[in-house]
Amino acid sequence: xxxxxxxxxxxxxxxxxxxxxxxxxxxxxxxxxxxxxxxxxxxxxxxxxxxxxxxxxxxxxxxxxxxxxxxxxxxxxxxxxxxxxxxxxxxxxxxxxxxxxxxxxxxxxxxxxxxxxxxxxxxxxxxxxxxxxxxxxxxxxxxxxxxxxxxxxxxxxxxxxxxxxxxxxxxxxxxxxxxxxxxxxxxxxxxxxxxxxxxxxxxxxxxxxxxxxxx
Length: 215
What we know:
By secondary structure, the chain is mainly α. The protein has a domain at about 70-210: Cytochrome Bc1 Complex, Chain D, domain 2, CATH 1.10.760.10. Helices cover about 40% and strands about 0% of the residues. It contains 10 helices and no strands. Helix 6 (about 100-110) crosses helix 10 and helix 9 packs across helix 10. Residues about 210-215 have low confidence and may be disordered. Keywords: Heme, Iron, Metal-binding. InterPro entries: Cyt_c-like_dom (IPR009056), Cyt_c-like_dom_sf (IPR036909).
């Protein structure tokens, strides 16, 4: 047998053995958890993992607060009766809005709130339109005495979680923007201009029930 035949036989044997399904000597994996990762459903209870002693529920670590989250409000949210206790929340914005912040907050109000509560905050937005619009019930008049007597924290709570037919705007507005919205409403109620000192309205009476809803 000449040299070329020997080389051909060797290559053929190697090729044949490499196509075999039998792995008599499997390779060693340096990081098997990376090579054979286990899929984890974030919003699933993952009972299979828990059965193996792996506690994964996608919840944040107890006692921690996300960056930018209202710490005091988080504490209130974990208690019962948050709509009533929200009256104790104090607006962290100690001054009235600057002209720049006022303009931005007004823009956010018209985008998110004006269609119901109206550009004048009188509850007569396009959806109601003096009863001629598609919305049969008049939204809350935000410059009325009822809302004037509502605590800042309760207004913030209503914007965050919604109230009655009004949905939550927590995904639309950051906590700071929601507090700015509270300031904007207060300034409109009092006919104030940007830059004036803020008035502490956290001493307002706690809400008695659904009658003090935002909408």
